[in-house]
Amino acid sequence: MSKDQEYQPLISDTLEEADVDSPSPQSTPICKFSTWIMHSALAVLVAIETMALVVLIAILLRRPSQAACGMPLGSQKVLYSPALSAVEHEVQVYHLGFPGDLSPFQIHSSPELDQMWSDLYNYGVSRITKEEAAHLPNKTHAIPGDPGHYIAELDVFHNLHCLNKVRMALDPDYYPDWRISTSNNHIPTQKNATEHVAHCIDWLRQSIMCHADTSVIVWQWDPRANESLVKGNVAHTCRKFDKITEWAKQRVLVNAYDPTVHIEDDIVVPILHQEMS
Q1: Which segments cross the bilayer (predicted)?
Q2: Chain-centre distance of CA 115, in angstroms?
């Protein structure tokens, strides 16, 4: 094969033909070294970018999701509550409520039991600041005689109040004022109790569905019964109730609230939330 066939100049034919015996500029040591430097630098740059991308992906995968942190997601509405700062989680196992695993609340109706229930929510009505009230999704009223503070109640305490009234209605002999009308026993004088308990039952239904607990109840084999039986003593992820009560007790409404006094203020509820008022 001739030298002309081995080497074809890249420059146009109109230029003077280079000496075929002289070395190509691209084959000189300096050019080879420059080319090697450029290729090496490019390889290093690509490697650095690849490593940075891998690290970023790893960080995003290990990062807790917004839902796990209690932060609002784009497709999810998380409403403001002044008590969110008090929320902490723990794992609990419920009392089964059957002989052998009864809770302290499963005793006969008595002043002692009444006090135990009262202690769960008798501090539930709170006084919050105007700044906190301005962030609520629904407007609340100012407290007469207590400038700069507004009345509020965490729903958990209303739920406990409602459950207590249902409990009392189940023992009308001990709590005659809470004897309710039934399908076959209409009691006109107990209209208030009947409507109140009906409200409470349905409110608790809605609350249970709203806070749908996804903890898993299981079935386990019982060799004595020779069958698998449902087991309710399972773990639940719970909000620490004592932290919520601590928050509420620090803000409990001590003085009597007069609902007949109207106080104008400059708090404006967003249009989105006015529909919920």
Answers
A1: 36-61
A2: 32
Please name the amino acid found at residue 140.
T
Render pLDDT for 203-230 as a digit per residue (tens, 0 to 9).
999 999 999 999 999 999 999 999 999 9
Give dist(CA 46, CA 10) in Å, integer. Answer: 30
Q: What distance lies between CA 212 and its chain's CA centroid?
A: 12
CA distance 257 to 152: 11
Q: Tens of pLDDT along 18-37?
A: 444 444 555 555 555 566 56
Residues 6+ apart with CB under 8 A from 116: 104, 105
Contacts 24+ apart (CB under 8 A), 175-180: 175/109
Pairing state of beta strands 227-231 and 235-239? unpaired
Instruction: Write out the H or E segment, with its range, that includes residue 129.
Output: strand 125-129
Q: Which helix (H) or strand (E) holds 256?
A: none
Phi/psi at 229 (5° precision): -120, 150
Tallying the residues shown for the chain, one arrives at 277
Question: How do the residues of the chain divide into helix, strand and coil, expressed in percent and rounded to 5?
Answer: 40, 10, 45
Name the pTM for this structure: 0.70
